[in-house]
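**User:** Here is a favour to ask of a fellow structure person. Please take any protein you like and set down a full record of it. No explanation is needed for now; the record alone will do.

**Assistant:**
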Amino acid sequence: MANTVRVDVVSAEEEIFSGEAEFIAAPASAGEVGVYPHHAPMITTIKPGALRIKLPDTKEETLIFISGGMLEVQPGLVTVLADTAIRGHDLDEAKAIAAKEAAEEAMKNKASDMDYAKAQAELTEAVAQIQAIKRLRKQ
């Protein structure tokens, strides 16, 4: 049996993943962070992107798109509290591209700084979803 750590990924709507993993890679706000079993305790914010979970005794990784949130590493447990989390196979490329185009259009036609900031956040999330979909295709 492989050396593992328990991983729980939850969003406001539901529990997305709960199980053992050999490795976790998350899009932390300061850059991608990798977590192996026995990692030092830490807490960090995460930005939109792909959370990759390497399951024990398999070559495949489970991919989960997260729109942001928090990552907490404790001895024997990694918890991801995501604003929104979508399993990789549930991502919709057409919807993500449409959201990206709508956000780009909203940025061009900004009525206020608030509208621009919201459009920019939506664009960042849509681009991260598209990148997650591309990464999933490579697997």
Observations:
- The longest strand covers residues 15-21.
- The chain has a mean pLDDT of 82.
- The two ends are 24 Å apart (CA to CA).
